[in-house]
Amino acid sequence: MAYRSFEDLEVWKLARKFAGDIYRELDGCRDFNFRNQITDAACSISNNIAEGSERLHRKEFIQFLGYAKGSAGESRNQLYLAEDFGFVSSERANQLRADARLIGGKLYALIRSLGDS
């Protein structure tokens, strides 16, 4: 896999957009603890991709990609709760969960490609 920086990675771009979408969707949520939890999880995806890519060893990068994948799963779970609590419509929650699944799949593929090289 050839890239110069994390900004070149499609999965980072998707994760960055996902975090913005979560922030905008939950902007009016008055449950500040919940809003902080879901936005932290969403931001953690791109943060871990960026941090891992700046590490000195491929093994560390893979580890941080694993953290990012975990945060994508946490975000999906939080979206179920947001839907249950009435903070997000079912349609929008489904769209955002699909985005998180796509990101998780791309992270898995990247982890596999780094592990095989």
Mean pLDDT: 95
CATH topology: de novo design (two linked rop proteins)
Largest sheet features = none
Q: Return residue spans where pLDDT drops below 50 for at least 5 consecutive residues.
A: none
- Going by CATH, the architecture would be Up-down Bundle
Number of strand segments:
0
Q: Summarize the amount of helix as a percent range.
A: over 70%
Number of helices: 4
CATH superfamily: 23S rRNA-intervening sequence
What's the level 1 CATH class?
A: Mainly Alpha
Percent range for β-strand residues: under 5%
Over all CA atoms, what is the radius of gyration?
14 Å
Query: What is the chain-wise order of helices and strands?
Result: HHHH
Structural class call reads: mainly alpha
Account of the protein in words:
The protein has 117 residues and is mainly α. The protein has one domain: Up-down Bundle (de novo design (two linked rop proteins)), CATH 1.20.1440.60. 79% of the residues lie in helices and 0% in strands. The chain has four helices and no strands. Helix 1 packs antiparallel against helix 2 (32-53) and helix 2 (32-53) packs antiparallel against helix 3 (58-84). It starts with 9 loop residues before the first helix and ends with a helix.
Summarize the entry for a quick read.
With 117 residues, the chain is mainly alpha-helical. It has helices at residues 10-25, 32-53, 58-84, 90-116.
